[in-house]
Amino acid sequence: MHLIVGSGIAGLSLAFSMYERNIPFKLIDAKKNYSSLVAAGLINPIVFRRTTKSWRVDDFTPYLASFYKRIEALVGANFFHPISIRRIFAHEQERDEWCKKQLQSEYSSYLNQITSEDDAFSNPKNNFGTGTIEHAYYVSTVTFMEEAYRFFESKQCIHYEEVDYSDFNTTTTSYKNETYEKIFFCQGYTNAENPWFGSLPIQCTKGETLTIHSTKLPEDVSLNLKCFILPIGHQQFKVGATYDWNSTDLSITEKGKAQIEAHLTTLTNDPYTIVEQKAGIRPTVLDRRPLLGKHAEFPNLILFNGLGTKGYMMAPLLASELLDHVLNGAMLDPEVNIQRFAKEKK
């Protein structure tokens, strides 16, 4: 039996991976998620600033598509959706870079070749044309998490409680006098409170989003320039997001709303109404790579954290790779291994 502490996208991906492998586990969570539940769930394979592929996207994309479809079948709900992303080019250099890369084999499956229709796309700031991306998706995060909780509740393997670190015994790998083979910590931005992994450089990056209602915005494509507009059905759209570094303040702000609305004017002049404003805190790492691996002194304590803004893209495959590493001795990608920071201290 293994213990998973935390049930955001990291903890849930581990739990589903263990379930599929018939590995017994218990999942504990305070049910106070402020990242995975609030996230837009948009999975974008391209980094727009330099028109480059997201890190390991060729590995992550096929795995996540298969993973989420299997989980949909398992829980009996629909939350995983393909979506086309239309990028409105910010300047001529971005358009030129896109034109070069759209013909390269490593980019051709993601970047559609620009057409006259793309150039003519109606937009307030379409001065340099647009391009569309394929193999993009979004996860309806609330549905995913609610159905995941319901599924694990039905299997009686999830328990809702505030974690008490004084109840852990590292010598016996136990929690509240129950012994486990391994304990996996997946606690997002609250990792700083963890006595064994709290010194690792996880930043708390607050983000705010708006949900708006519009009868004019397209519902078959996500628009992107300075912000994203993600259609989520019934003429509603998620818009965001802001970045507030080193903040654990969970309150929504007028400043955040004003920033999103200002960015929104680059994508539409159409009227809309604000339905909801939310704030969450992402666990980010300075080198933009997640943190996975065993504790140096207590190897039965495992960390899975630091997924940042791309949790829904990276978590499914990284959860599987972490299990292969911990349980089968497979090598862990050195770019995510927490030992990279241990080496820096020497």
Explain what the structure shows:
With 346 residues, this protein is an alpha+beta fold. Among the domains are: 2-38 and 142-201 and 287-345, FAD/NAD(P)-binding domain (3-Layer(bba) Sandwich), CATH 3.50.50.60; 202-285, 2-Layer Sandwich (D-Amino Acid Oxidase, Chain A, domain 2). Helices cover 29% and strands 28% of the residues. It has nine helices and 20 strands. The longest helix has 19 residues, at 57-75. The protein is globular, with a radius of gyration of 21 Å. It starts with a strand and ends with a helix. The model has no long low-confidence stretch (mean pLDDT 94).
Question: Stretches where pLDDT falls below 50 for ≥5 residues?
Answer: none
> What's the main sheet like?
9 strands, mixed
Q: Which class of one domain in CATH terms?
A: Alpha Beta
Cα end-to-end separation: 35 Å
Percent helix range:
25-40%
**Which homologous superfamily in CATH is the superfamily of one domain?**
FAD/NAD(P)-binding domain
CATH architecture tag of one domain: 3-Layer(bba) Sandwich
Cα radius of gyration in angstroms: 21 Å
Write the layout of secondary structure elements.
Blueprint: E1 2-5, H1 9-20, E2 25-29, E3 42-43, E4 46-47, E5 52-53, H2 57-75, E6 80-88, H3 92-101, H4 105-108, H5 116-119, E7 130-139, H6 141-154, E8 158-160, E9 168-169, E10 174-175, E11 178-179, E12 183-185, E13 202-213, E14 221-224, E15 228-233, E16 236-240, E17 244-245, H7 254-264, E18 273-285, E19 291-294, E20 301-305, H8 311-328, H9 339-345
Parallel strand pairs: 1-2, 1-12, 2-8, 6-14, 12-20
Antiparallel strand pairs: 3-7, 4-5, 6-7, 9-10, 10-11, 13-16, 13-17, 13-18, 14-15, 15-16, 19-20
